[in-house]
């Protein structure tokens, strides 16, 4: 079925039936698959699920805005609830991006390890147990030949085809447009969000501490999958990651800026729904249970267009960037 759809897509891209062409149709690319997707395959992101972080202007005076999408249920909801409360309390206003580690993370918050100096947290912060690093998949799971789940679970997970090689004992795929990993076992099936480039996680101290959500970081390097199920993923940067990934690297302990002048002030952090209607960001993503997304993943794993001479035959879940675009705009797909 996948190959039949892609063959039809290649003909559509070429603009005429194969018999009428002087040369074979161009093979599809990830960008062409997304461009040919149907409007009804895209799902809107509620502004209430977006954090809009305004940083101080850069050295040239240009605006720096970072937009984070919060992860949906059932993932990390204890921390997400805390993050929402912090945003509603304007807690991050006046704090900073204070730690930047090359090929690792950019971290923001109060930046004080001394509880006597730390900014007081708003009322209503709730402790979150380590058990919430993953979520149950309450259903029986049967795998098709193409590694797609036969029964819908909560959340519904579309598995990668072929399987992500990161963990041979588990599987990787997508749930509600988010990259996830999952394990099937006699003691219950579990699913959890993965740490990919742009993922936003909750900084913490040593176990059993799990962090409140006040100290957040964005991954700005190679996907640190070893953090999966060890630190909570609460979101992903969907716009403005360059304002974090291009910052000077910290030279102090653990990448903290040893010169306070390098810290990047945070002007404000607001839920998108709390902004004036005209300023509320509107985004949508290509649904991960749609036919076009299935084709998109397949092409990602099996590139055979003009640039690629050796198809990989597989793909890491973090290298399948879920197409996200502003409403009315084209998705940027490599």
Structure description:
This protein is α+β, with helices and mostly antiparallel strands and about 325 residues long. About 15% of the residues lie in helices and about 25% in strands. It contains five helices and 16 strands. It has helices at about 1-15, 30-35, 75-90, 240-245, 290-300, and strands spanning about 40-45, 50-55, 65-70, 95-100, 105-110, 135, 155-160, 170-175, 180-185, 190-195, 200, 215-220, 235-240, 265-270, 285, 325. The protein has an eight-stranded antiparallel barrel. Helix 1 (about 1-15) packs across helix 5. The longest helix has 13 residues, at about 1-15. The radius of gyration is 21 Å and the shape is globular.
Q: If helices are DSSP runs of H or I spanning 4 or more residues, what is the number of helices?
A: 5
Strand order in the sheet with the most strands: 2-3-13-11-12-5-4-14
Biggest sheet features: 8 strands, antiparallel, barrel
State the distance separating the first and last CA atoms: 24 Å
The low-pLDDT segments are 9-16, 140-150, 165-169
Percentage beta strand: 15-25%
Return the structural class: alpha+beta
Assembly state of the chains shown: single chain
Order of helices and strands: HHEEEHEEEEEEEEEEHEEHE
Topology, number of strands: 16
Radius of gyration: 21 Å
Q: Please, what is the average pLDDT?
A: 86
- Global outline: globular
């Amino acid at each position: 079925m996948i190959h039949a759809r892609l063959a039809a897509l290649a003909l559509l891209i070429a603009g005429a039936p194969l018999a009428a062409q002087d040369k074979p149709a161009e093979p599809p690319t990830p960008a062409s698959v997304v461009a040919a997707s149907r409007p009804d395959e895209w799902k809107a992101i509620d502004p209430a699920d977006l954090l809009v972080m305004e940083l101080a202007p850069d050295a040239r005076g240009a605006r720096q805005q970072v937009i984070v999408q919060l992860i949906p249920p059932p993932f990390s909801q204890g921390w997400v609830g805390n993050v929402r409360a912090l945003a509603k309390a304007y807690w991050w206003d006046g704090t900073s991006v204070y730690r930047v580690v090359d090929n690792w993370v950019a971290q923001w918050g109060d930046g004080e390890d001394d509880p006597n100096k730390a900014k007081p947290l708003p009322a209503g912060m709730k402790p979150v147990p380590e058990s919430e690093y993953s979520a149950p998949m309450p259903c029986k799971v049967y795998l098709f030949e193409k590694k797609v789940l036969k029964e819908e679970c909560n959340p519904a997970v579309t598995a990668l085809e072929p399987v992500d090689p990161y963990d041979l004992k588990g599987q990787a795929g997508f749930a509600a447009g988010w990259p996830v990993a999952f394990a099937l076992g006699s003691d219950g099936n579990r699913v959890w969000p993965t740490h990919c480039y742009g993922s936003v996680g909750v900084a913490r101290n040593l176990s059993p501490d799990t962090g409140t959500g006040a100290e957040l970081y964005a991954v700005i390097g190679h996907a640190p999958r070893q953090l999966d199920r060890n630190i909570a993923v609460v979101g992903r940067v969907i716009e403005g990651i360059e304002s974090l990934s291009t910052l000077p690297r910290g030279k102090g302990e653990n990448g903290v800026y040893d010169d306070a002048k390098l810290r990047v002030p945070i002007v404000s952090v607001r839920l998108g729904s709390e902004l004036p209607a005209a300023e509320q960001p509107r985004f949508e993503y290509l649904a991960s249970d749609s036919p076009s997304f299935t084709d998109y993943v397949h092409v990602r794993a099996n590139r055979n267009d003009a640039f690629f001479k050796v198809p990989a035959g597989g793909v890491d879940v973090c290298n399948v960037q879920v197409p996200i675009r502003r409403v009315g705009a084209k998705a940027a797909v490599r």
